[in-house]
Amino acid sequence: MRASLFIIAGAAVLFGMYFGRGLFMPIAVALVLSLTLSPIVRTANRRGIPSGLTASVLVVGLAATLMVGSLTLTQPIMEWINDAPSIGRQLRDRLESIRKPVEAVNEAGKEVQKIAESEDPTVQEVSVRQPGLLNRAANHVAGIGATILVTFGLTLYMLAYSSTFYEKVVRVLPRLSDKKRALRIAYDVERIVSRYLLTVASINVALGIIIGTSMWLVGMPNPILWGLAAMLLNFLPYIGAAVGVLVSAAVALVTFESILQALVAPLVYLCITALEGNFITPAILGRRLELNPVAILLSVLLWGFVWGVIGVLIAVPLLVVLKVFCDHVDGLHSLGEFLSGARPPPDEPEEIVGTPRTAG
User: Fold this and answer.
1) pLDDT surpassing 60 at residue 135
2) What's the Cα-to-Cα distance from 51 to each of 56, 98, 163, rounded to whole Å?
């Protein structure tokens, strides 16, 4: 009975977030941004700089960066969107030329081609009246702009008044021990999440620069776009690198005549991301914030279903927030242990390995 109620409540929350994504999504993104930047604001405040001023500078800087990046990448992204059907046909033809044709697939392809090339006016009328991708995107520009504006506004207020929020929490709690524990949990979550996200963001920016430069050296088109894609995809451990390798392989097959030459770009992408994911990032972050790959996949699927692309991008940061919070709450240690990807030391006794451990 209790499990059924828990499942029903969870489903209700998820559907509420799905249908109310216009409200909840900006709040979640603003929360992640504020947790990341709060230590910077607090450090500046200790040195006499008002929190509001520091928060304004950070938010304006983020907005300016987003605007400059959008303007810079608009043209190559539009070119990729416009060329997507042609690239798809070229990739299909290229794959058919390097593998043994499958009769059933070929027959299905011929039937689709006949329908596409038919002169049936009904078919042509339907295809003309279907809104294109660019038209659908244009219809959502105002909504996207409003969401971005609300997100940055919430981030500004969360950063500027975070200390006030903590003061309110302290006043509400009755006992001194509860006040101290609440502040310790809040500051620890903020510090660890900020360290994680700032470190990962810095690594991803460096990775994007390296990937973009490498794609330019091997002759891939739009190297700046490759760098940005690698930076964003790397916020999804394991999944992002796999997607980048597959997409680079597909584009390289269309771009280069030689199969061996086409293999260079995905191999370079794979080697760089493998080095980063298996050695550089673990060495910098340590094993404490290593995440369970299964939990990552479930989080990406869940938030991707609820909030689409934005949900996919913030799935891992939200998972980190949840893990750090669980590590600091006694009743949630088991969930925190499941979310952790770190393995127990091999010399631990068997009866200790199975018990949840508190964060140190």
Assistant:
1) no
2) 8, 61, 9
